[in-house]
Amino acid sequence: MSYDNMEALRDEWKRMYGETLPSLALSKSSVQDSWPVHVDHCFGRIILDNVIGRDSPWLNKLKSPAVKNMTSEQLEACIALGTAIAEGRESLPLLDAKSLQLRGKKQQKPAAVLANSKRRREDRSDANDSNNNNNNNNNKKKKENTGSAPKKKRQIDIKSALTPSTTVKAPLSTPAAPPASDPNVPPPESNEVDSNLHHLITTSDLTPFRQSVLLALCQVPSGSFTSYAAMAGHLHSSARAVGNALRNNPFAPRVPCHRVVAADKKLGGFGGEWGMLGKHAGEKVRLLREEGVVVDTGRGRVEGLTWNAFR
Q1: From the candidates 42, 78, 218, 257, which is the catalytic residue?
Q2: Cβ neighbours of residue 59 under 8 Å, at least 6 residues apart?
Q3: Is 257 tagged catalytic?
């Protein structure tokens, strides 16, 4: 991830440790086995120790306040680690244990934390297997009672919940965009997710959460816009986590991240930058206007009703 100026990097780093990660911790997001910390300065300490400190507390290598004295490379590395934590690609308990060990605090050693994390994952797996066995036994009994084989039950997960069927259907007609003169026309119903695009997303190497965000976004029709908060409500996540998931969209413009704005209808992010002053803001405005969305560039916000008909 690259940024054109240090101010944008600093703002993103502050959002990461000050808002994104604390909100995930408070909601007890399942992306981590556990959340040993919940407040902003603890997340900052863990990430700075692991990225900058490495073999000693970060204050031994960088003057405080860190955000004003970090290089662009250090900021990018800290943001990348924060994103990996938010997406579940890095273990927060393990990183916390390493940080505390650097500071001489008496805590579980990283190896023990890793073992406990593995045990929790295995416990969840065993619970899932038990549930699956119970379902299989119920199906077997049903077959014996009815004399006919039950229909094969599709495994329920977040991907299938977002897309009820992968059967190719005749495309639904996309409702016309609301006229620019009447932004209060009720938003249209959701799009059918194209089966080829659905396959590309679900077979990609993206995390399950990022896949679920992209699949949800595919439902937003042309001529409408939704918000990070609306998507977060649908996905039981946070607006910041949704924004982070959309920052690098490998399927744009087929997955229309330009149709997502802030909760107050301000333009939001696009191309890794935020707001009307962002380098790519003009492109986001152009795409929205081409689809019929009214954009007030003077106030930097869209007009109309926020689309929220997710299924």
Answers
A1: 257
A2: 53
A3: yes
